[in-house]
Recover the amino acids of this structure.
């Protein structure tokens, strides 16, 4: 009796479908996309507009998705939440053009559903823009890890890990940091504020301030050396 090959785990099967979807999107391969997305599929644009399956497929040939308009794609920190016959895959994605003139970072949330035949199909896709603009420097971001004391018991922590610089604020909230210069974080939400640095002689941050609507909210001084780890883009 022939031994049947073991079925792929949900994680492996969804990763494979995600890779097929990404390739088909980049190649504007509508027939492949038709096989990969569910009949009820929806595509939510970063600005909030939602396309039906039909509208999404019609728009693919025109490069409606960010992935279809960039040459280089890297994925960071993918995670998967399984719940029976449904699953949500979340990742940060970095998109760049080969000319080196533009860069976009997205948070991708892709929901999958398992058919009666056991195949995973994409049920919805939602993208949020985290950064869009001039290319960013990995070597610059990698120098900014460390702990910065606002006051006793209140600390800002910056960690360079897996190719991403993440700030954890004194209140426990966290976000990815995008440096548009050695002293300035990109402003994404003026109400939330952005980080402004002063540098020591070695080019590493000595102090960091939270600036909101042009007003300095607090200032912190480096108290521990940098924290960093290796890169894990996919």
């Amino acid at each position: 009796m022939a031994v049947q090959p073991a079925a792929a785990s949900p994680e492996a099967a969804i990763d494979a479908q995600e890779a097929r979807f990404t390739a088909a999107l980049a190649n504007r391969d509508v027939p492949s996309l038709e096989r990969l997305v569910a009949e009820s599929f929806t595509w939510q644009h970063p600005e909030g507009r939602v396309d039906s399956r039909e509208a999404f497929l019609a728009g693919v040939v025109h490069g409606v998705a960010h992935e279809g308009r960039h040459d280089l794609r890297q994925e960071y920190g993918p995670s998967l939440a399984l719940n029976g016959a449904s699953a949500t895959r979340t990742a940060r994605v970095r998109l760049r053009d080969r000319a080196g003139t533009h860069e976009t970072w997205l948070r991708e949330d892709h929901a999958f559903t398992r058919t009666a035949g056991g195949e995973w199909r994409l049920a919805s896709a939602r993208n949020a823009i985290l950064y869009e603009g001039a290319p960013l420097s990995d070597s610059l971001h990698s120098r900014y890890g460390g702990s910065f004391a606002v006051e006793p018991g209140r600390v800002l922590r910056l960690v360079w890990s897996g190719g991403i610089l993440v700030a954890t604020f004194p209140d426990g909230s966290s976000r990815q940091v995008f440096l548009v210069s050695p002293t300035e974080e990109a402003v994404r939400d003026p109400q939330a504020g952005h980080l402004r640095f002063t540098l020591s002689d070695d080019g590493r941050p000595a102090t960091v301030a939270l600036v909101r609507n042009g007003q300095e909210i607090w200032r912190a001084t480096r108290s521990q050396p940098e924290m960093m780890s290796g890169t894990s883009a996919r």
In short: The mean pLDDT is 90. DSSP finds four helices and 16 strands in the chain.
